[in-house]
Amino acid sequence: MDTMEGLSRSHYCGEVTEAEKGKEVILCGWVERRRDHGGLIFIDLRDRTGVIQVVASPDYEEQSFKKAEQVRTEYVLAIRGEVRMRDEATVNQKMPTGTIEVRCDEMRILNSSKTPPFYIEDNVDVDESIRLKYRYLDLRRPEMQKNLIMRHRVKHAMREFLDKNGFFEIETPELCKSTPEGARDYLVPSRVNPGKFYALPQSPQLFKQLLMISGMDRYFQIARCFRDEDLRADRQPEFTQLDMEMSFMSQEQILQLTEQLMHYIFEEVLGHDIQLPIQRITWDYAMKYYGSDKPDLRFDMKFTDITELVRGTEFKVFRSVIEKGGQVKAINVKGYSQIPRRELDGLVEYVGHYGAKGLAWICFTPDGIKSQVMKFLGEDTIQAIGTACGSETGDLVLMIADKPAVVAAALGELRKEMARRTHLIDENKFAFTWVLDFPMFEYNEEEKRYVAMHHPFTAPRDEDLDKLETDPGHVYAKAYDLVLNGVELGGGSLRIYQQDIQQRVFKAIGLTPEDANEKFGFLLRAFEYGAPPHGGLAFGLDRMIMLMLKRKSIRDVIAFPKTQNAIDQMSEAPGEVAVKQLRELHIHVDAEDKNLVKK
Amino acid sequence: MDTMEGLSRSHYCGEVTEAEKGKEVILCGWVERRRDHGGLIFIDLRDRTGVIQVVASPDYEEQSFKKAEQVRTEYVLAIRGEVRMRDEATVNQKMPTGTIEVRCDEMRILNSSKTPPFYIEDNVDVDESIRLKYRYLDLRRPEMQKNLIMRHRVKHAMREFLDKNGFFEIETPELCKSTPEGARDYLVPSRVNPGKFYALPQSPQLFKQLLMISGMDRYFQIARCFRDEDLRADRQPEFTQLDMEMSFMSQEQILQLTEQLMHYIFEEVLGHDIQLPIQRITWDYAMKYYGSDKPDLRFDMKFTDITELVRGTEFKVFRSVIEKGGQVKAINVKGYSQIPRRELDGLVEYVGHYGAKGLAWICFTPDGIKSQVMKFLGEDTIQAIGTACGSETGDLVLMIADKPAVVAAALGELRKEMARRTHLIDENKFAFTWVLDFPMFEYNEEEKRYVAMHHPFTAPRDEDLDKLETDPGHVYAKAYDLVLNGVELGGGSLRIYQQDIQQRVFKAIGLTPEDANEKFGFLLRAFEYGAPPHGGLAFGLDRMIMLMLKRKSIRDVIAFPKTQNAIDQMSEAPGEVAVKQLRELHIHVDAEDKNLVKK
Fold it and tell me: What residues does the record give for site: Important for tRNA non-discrimination (chains A, B) (predicted)?
């Protein structure tokens, strides 16, 4: 193998332009392709910026030509040579460097390569598990490099904006104390303190509030967080969060600052101009019209509540639902009245996954109205429903009657599904919305008590304080979520900073002062020493970048992600460890005698 | 308590200047001091920028004056009022805002405070364990706020420089695989993979090399790292590292880029102009003249090797050391010849801590030469030693005879100690040096084999490749450390990227291909697919910021540090966890039956 000795890269491959015509360049990179043609060898040389064509010939430099003959895909080369225009016939308009090439005056083979298990190119059709096992090759693909580079740019833009706005990035511990609230903790046994454990942080929530009590005023951190949950497609055991907290600011000021942050990031990284102010809807509104606290507003298709229209009908299914306190809601699907009967049957099945026991439909076809509930509701009611839903000829109305929670879930999912089927979603659109005024509490049927919807430090709205004891179900919080294209980008709240209100909230969720003290002791003590009014928010960075880049999986925007079994397929983590390590940590593995660990 | 409702902070306390005279400001902060004088109440209001005086009087606003009467230290206030010049008599030149004050036209008490356990002021004389327990109050002290703000600025400057220079910050996993090399790992039991464990990363070393194989070209990360070691004063179980790696660059290019990075940070954050290029010494030179691979070059006081001068003497102590392959080295302490005999005896004890069995001394006093070895060495030799050491009248020469390693350690420490005693150290100085050409291997007496001095991926110098098999003790590495004021700021190396050389290095440290494969399997596989020449370095961020800020402890530059027992005294992490949590993780605590964990 050759070395770089005496050579110093002058340009990245993708950054050589016609301006360098006639100049000597020194390039380094990987062989994407080699072609032998007419006594010449053509090599496409790739680095992170792109690809350029290198031409070797015995007429240019004999030694280099001989080396070029040995070269294969993914060999690592350094090339010295003159930039020149290609012959008209060989110009490649699809390549940014397609009008030029480099005459190979010197070639060094810096390293060889085995044949990779898949082609290093975009849209490669290869099983994800192979891509993850050979992640270092997968990351050579231009689209993966772009993802990671954009991720860097997003974080850099965030930091620039926050630094300019007086935020300090302060690192908080990752070896923390386990708290029983929230998701399952990852635990770390302590060697020095036998029988005790650290927990990896689910978020820096407590520490950022303590920093506000410290008077740091404006804090942020791009922080690693950990949750030991069963993984869904868009979850990772470790994930990255933009975490912010600020003092002496109103909710209005926090929302505005956050909008400016988002505007800056999208502008800097994507050149996209988010229209400010971002629209705001309340949680009640979101649930009422979209059945979701993170509605996809790239399309409209709001729910219409037709409960009152059908309250008086003979139709038993509707009537019994309404009598039990349920409701009937409908969506109008534009221009889909010709839906085949079989597809309609499929939709019944679809909403069944979300708990709905049935689906009623009305097709306002050009040939007249068709509906399986016509005979129960009568044409007048059917017409009235159509009017309420704003239906026109050619539209399809879909109705669900059930408990409000089931209607919300099932009709909400159906709304998104029908939008996909009718191509209503503009994939290029970024539809932001704030969702405000979340309920403080939700009733937990299992535990027969109210629990905090966000977390028990979220401040209730001033006007609802009186209801904390009498009507907790109708107390709303100073909480806000930012939603993009139907995905929760992040959210936060103003926090309780006054001890008397904190105690009343704890009481509302059935937490005695003793329990509260055991769970949050040191934070509550800190609040006794002059806590300022404060609030903040947190954004899931992986998800944000995935949405910005229009990717389908967060694994595409994480350099070394884990599978749904929380395994790193490349390094094979987690792995077995030596018994000596366990002894030092004062722990045994349950299955130790089954030889699950190395002796 | 009052709320902020309708008020919006207009200024930070410390940023109000005479330019605001006559204007209304709205300030928020904590009560640093309250004084009642002449019917007025004076409140020093503090936020993260500084302190300003607020004056309340019933003549200004009755209600606010009444509130001011209730106010105590660390209460949280919002103040609205007009900025005015102070009376000449009350001007405080020590305060940046000492010529102005704010007339209190409105006061809101946003929160009360218990009396804090210590004063919120700099140079507070309080036990560190109290400071750590009430860290949120400790962090209110201006010097601690400054430390954290400077830390933010350092990281921000790093990122700016590296972004401008084409480095991408890429996040690597923290749930990794345990590798048996290096320090002790923190382990994390896996719930989904029973009996298996993640390890928290000691550094992102393997991942950054994989990113180079991925063609990312220039990587950095300000990364959290973990080592479960017994803690010394300047160590923490979790610490932060600036981690860098780059491809296709020579050692010279890496050193130059690093120097520019350092220059940028010191300039941006401290306004300090590091003189470039930073001086370079070899590891051999550092050991020979300073007895340390991280010499403090704020002062000179080099070692003089006097072995040859005393080889022929009758002095048995020296002779027997020399005969066994040892050496005799001396330092010259300027102007310290009048050292009392008792202090000399103390020095003998001092070097004893570092393994030296004795210490010989020569005092070139104005009244003549005094030395306990005069009669053994004779005046000629004593004079010759003085000449060799560059001694003048008034100087003290200290000599140690021992094995080279002991001479280096003991005389190296003595050198620093004598510099402190003779006030030779300019505390305002930043003395940088590169230490280059580290040995590849050091001989491990216990294991009777060579081990890698840095890590086994460090590249040997090209000119030493031949010695890998024949004379590993004289193979030097393409490794470099950056040293500041006697502390290793960071270091790195060019890496081996060619498989044949990697195998030879493994062989030199007695690692069979099978062992190597078990330990580093996936990395070695990755190297088969076209690894580029690459190298990098890592800097300990906590230590760097400590040195920049001239602090004595890294705990002063970490928001929430742990004690030497790896305990967070505020949150009391690590803590006990529920047995249910352990069962889910498939582990038992050894002492579980002793009730060390909650049932």
Answer: 37
